[in-house]
UniProtKB/TrEMBL annotation:
It comes from the Eukaryota. This is cysteine synthase. It comes from Lotus japonicus (Lotus corniculatus var. japonicus). The chain crosses the membrane at residues 6-26. Residues 42-383 form the Tryptophan synthase beta chain-like PALP domain.
Amino acid sequence: MVSAARSAGAVGAILIVSLVVAYFISKKKSQTKKKKKKGIVEAIGNSPLIRINSLSDATGCQILGKCEFLNPGGSVKDRVALHIIQEALESGQLRPGGIVTEGSAGSTAISIATVAPAYGCKSHVVIPDDAAIEKSQILEALGATVERVRPVSITHKNHFVNIARRRASEANEFALKHRNSQLNGKDSKQVNGYKSDGDNHSSLFPTDCQGGCFADQFENLANFRAHYEGTGPEIWEQTNGKLDAFIAAAGTGGTVAGVSRFPQDKNPKIKCYLIDPPGSGLFNKVTRGVMYTKEEAEGRRLKNPFDTITEGIGINRVTRNLAMAKLDGAFRGTDMEAVEMARFLLKNDGLFLGSSSAMNCVGAVRVAQTLGPGHTIVTILCDSGMRHLSKFYNAEYLSQLGLTPKATGLEFLAIK
C-alpha cells in the first residue's frame, strides 16, 4: 500500500512538473508571437541600452549608450521620420502617393526614404554636397530623388532646407495642375492647401504625384514628440529610473529636447547636458544666454566660421524643437576628440560609430569627470560608422585636416 501510494505520488509530481513546464513553454511561445513585428514600422524603436565598458571602467561611472544605429534605417532619425509621416497623414497634409520632401545632411533623409514607402509615399531629398557621398548613394538606392546643393546660410533662399520647402509647394502645384487637366480644365479643390497657378510645375515629380509635404525636421514638433513619447520613456524604463545624467549633441534639437524633458519631468534632479561641436553657437547659448561670444558678435563673426567634421550636429539658431529642451549645462567638443573617441571605442568595445555618436561619447566622459565616480550617464549612439567611410574614417581626408588619430588610450580627454 505504501509503495503504491509513493508511486502514485511520484506520478502526480511528474504530472504537475510536466504541466508547469508545458505552461511556461506555452507562455513563452505566446510571448514570442506577441513580439512579432508587423512590417518595418513596428521595428522602429525599443533599441537596447548598453554599458560602454571601456568608458565606464575608465571613469568609474556607468556610461550607457542607446543603440539607435540598430533601427531599420540605421539611425535615431527613424523615430522622427515615423512621427512626421504618421502625423502628416493623420492631419491630411500628406496622402498616399504623395512626396515627403526634406533638407537633410543625411540620416533624417535616409530614414524618411526608408519609412515613406511603408505608407505608399515617395521622398525627395535636398542634401548639402559636402555631406559624405555614401549618404546620397544610400538615398538613391532607397528610391529617393536626391538633389545635392552647395552649403549656404539658412537665411539664403538656396539653403538646402529652403529648397526642400519649395519642392513640397511645387509638388502640390504639380499635382493640382495634373488633376485639373484630367477634369478638362474645370476648377478643382486645393491640394494640401495650395492653389495651382496653371503654369508652374516641376519635372521632378511623377505624373501620379499626389502632392507634397515638407517634413521640416528642425521646426516640426513631431520630432520632439518622437523622443518625448518614445526614446525618453524607453531610457527611463531601461534604467528603472535610476539615471543621474543625460547628454547629447543637437542638430535639429529634437533628440536632446525630447529625451531631456521626459526624465526631468519624472525626476527634476536628473541633469541634462549638451555637447557642442566646433562651428556651433549652442554652447554659448546654453552657458551664457547668447548665441555668439563678444569676439563673434555681429559684424565681427566670420562669414564662413570653422565648421566641424561631425555631421548632423551643431547649429547657430534655436529651433522650435531645441527650445523644448531642459538643459543644465553644456560642454565643448573638438573634432580631434571625436576622431580619437571613435577609434578608441572601435578598438576597445567593438563599437563602430558615426561622428555624432563619437561626439556624444566625448560628452558622456566630460559629464562623468564633472559629476565624479558612481553616477549613471546615458547618451545616444545615433548611427554607425558605415555612413562615414569617405570622410570621418578616411585616413587621407583626416590627414589633410590635421586630424590623424594618435592616442593609445583616453589621454585626449586627460584620462591616463
